[in-house]
Structure formats: C-alpha cells, structure tokens
Specification:
Strand content: 15-25%
Protein name: Putative dehydrogenase
Structural class: alpha/beta
GO molecular function, one term: nucleotide binding
Organism: Rhizobium giardinii
InterPro entries: Gfo/Idh/MocA-like_OxRdtase_N, Gfo/Idh/MocA_oxidoreduct, GFO_IDH_MocA-like_dom, NAD(P)-bd_dom_sf
Mean pLDDT: 95
CATH topology of the largest domain: Dihydrodipicolinate Reductase, domain 2
Number of domains: 2
Radius of gyration: 21 Å
Helix content: 25-40%
Number of helices: 10
C-alpha cells in the first residue's frame, strides 16, 4: 500500500509540489530502501525506528501505512513528535484504540485523518448528489452486494473476520456517506464457506439500521468464484419516489415514479448528476489533497478520525453481532 500512496503523491502535481518525502520507516529497512529507489527518493532517511527517523528529519506529516495492530503505536509516536497523521484504514484494531487516538490528536492539536479512498470516486460522489437532490424522494434503503474471488496470499488469508475488517469498511463508509445518516444497530451473520482459502470470515451478511428509518444491507464474500462484482460493490438505492441501480463501475440506471395509476406505476428515467467537484474523485490522491488542505486552512478533513470512527464502529458491531448472533447497537 505504501507504493500506492507514493504513486499518488508522485502522479499528482499539486501534491508533489507540497510534499517532500524525507524518510521511510519499515520493520524491514531493505524494503524501505527498495521503495525509495523505485521513486527516486535518494535523500530520504531510511530506518526501522519511527521516533529516530522523525527526530532526524523533523517531519511535519506521517503517512501511516502499517498493519492495524501497529497503528496505535505509530500514530501516538507521530503525534508526540508534532506530526499530523494520515492513516490507512481501518483506523484502529479496536474502538478503544480509536478513541485513544482521537483524544491524542485533539490534545496535540494535530490533524488525524483516515484514508477512505473509495468514497473519493466519481460513482459515490454522483450517488450522494442524486440522493441529496431529492430526485428519488426520501431515502429509505441502500443495498450492496460484494462478491469477488480474491486470492491475495499473505496476511489476509490468516486474518480473523477478514472480509468485515479488511474490506467491508469501504462499503460501510461509502454507504454512511451516501445516506448521510448515523448507524444505529446491526445484525450480522458471518461464515467461512466450504472451499474458502481464508482462515476465517470470508463471507458476511449484515443488516444495519441507520437513523431516520433508513436500512442498509450488505452481502459479501471474498471467496465467491465465477461472477465477480466491482470492487466498489453493486448498489441499489431506494427512495420513496424511485430507485437507483449502480454496478460499481460506469452503469447507472435511475427511475422515478411518474404516475399515480396502475398495478405497477409508470416511471421516468432520472439523470444521475456528475460529481460537483472532479478533484474529489481521484481516490488516494483526493484523500491526501483533502488532508493537506485541512492542515493549511484549519478546517476538518472529510475523513477525520473523530468522524471515521463511526465507520469503524459499524465493523466492530457487525463482528460482535456475528459472534453473539444477536442484534448489536452502536
């Protein structure tokens, strides 16, 4: 993932003009050195001790791309050295650690935000604009399907709750953004289907209750071969007056009821608006740009940790519901 972040910096002129990468830290310094060579970072300090590299470089910002179990230590260390922090998702390995990081960032007076890059894509921004326009009436439900036979190898195939913890948070966060509602409760069933090459939790089905009586359902699997959906999931957004279908790629179909007679009422097509700001549709680059703007202007970034913890709470509530087979409130 560090390669993806550095590529976003290198490929985006506005970000490249603002950001100088002064150090790379890895438990395996050889990996950091290799990455520095790949991106021409010949002057970057290489090391395995974050505190030491921060002391040597006097960095202003830390891009935290570590595994979740190491995140709390990395964020705490960065904040203690006066750095703003942009973290990979999920923002913490527990709600308690998430709350601790929020408190630490507030005490330090620094920005801490989370990379939820999949809300910074054109499709999600277009859906949000359509819902906000009222063209579908009042929002009542969001339904998402995610089915991909992904053979990663490595740590993911050894994780517990792999789908919910490592992937579903993207769709959970995007649904929360589209709905602009607060998650209230969830019932979730998790399984590891026959033939799964994962150790645990490769599939899940969750029903979330959002505020204002909005329902969000998620059906997903990382070991479903033969008919992959988009990585962004397949969406059905229902309002009191119409429905939007999105395949997670380029296909949008939106219809609104246009008559008051008949067993099945007639419908008209609805135009799905383009994103209000194209600069907000470039994934990682857009998240980084939003983070840097927040530092410069003092405004709160869209994916600030004190907001993103609500998406993290959806994940852990779903995991707890699956474990207890009970409805869990957030």
């Amino acid at each position: 993932m560090a390669r993806g972040w550095l590529k976003a910096v290198a490929d985006t002129p506005d970000i490249r003009a603002e950001v100088e990468v002064v150090g790379l830290v890895d438990v395996n310094p050889a990996a950091a050195k290799s990455l520095a060579g790949e991106f021409g970072l010949t002057d970057a300090v290489i090391g395995s001790d974050l505190a030491a590299v921060l002391a040597e470089t006097a960095a202003d910002v830390v891009f935290d791309v570590v595994i979740p179990s190491a995140r709390h230590h990395v964020v705490a260390t960065a904040l203690a050295h006066g750095c703003h922090v942009l973290s990979e998702k999920p923002m913490a390995s527990s709600i308690q650690e998430g709350r601790a990081m929020i408190a630490q960032a507030a005490a330090a007076g620094k920005v801490h935000a989370i990379v939820q890059n999949r809300r910074f894509i054109a499709g999600i921004r277009r859906i949000r604009r359509l819902v906000e326009s009222g063209a579908l009436g009042e929002l009542t439900a969001i339904h998402c399907d995610f089915f991909i036979g992904a053979h990663f190898g490595g740590f993911r195939e050894e994780m517990d709750n792999v789908l919910l913890l490592d992937m579903a948070i993207h769709t959970f966060d995007a649904a929360r953004f589209v709905a602009d509602k607060a998650p209230v409760a969830v019932y979730c069933h998790e399984s590891n289907p026959r033939g799964s090459w994962y150790a645990h939790g490769a599939a899940a089905n969750a029903i979330f209750e959002f505020s204002d009586d909005v329902t969000f359902t998620y059906r997903g699997s990382w070991c479903a071969e033969g008919a992959n959906t988009s990585w962004e999931s397949r969406w059905r957004i229902i309002g009191t007056q119409g429905t939007l279908l999105w395949d997670g790629a380029e296909d949008f179909q939106a219809h609104r009821v246009s008559g008051t007679e008949g067993f099945l009422r007639p419908v008209d097509s609805v135009l799905v608006p383009e994103p209000a700001n194209v600069a907000e549709t470039h994934g990682h680059a857009s998240v980084i740009a939003d983070f840097l703007t927040a530092i410069k202007t003092g405004r709160t970034p869209e994916t600030a940790s004190n907001d993103n913890i609500n998406s993290l709470a959806m994940v852990f509530a779903a995991i707890e519901s699956a474990r207890t087979r009970q409805r869990v409130t957030l």
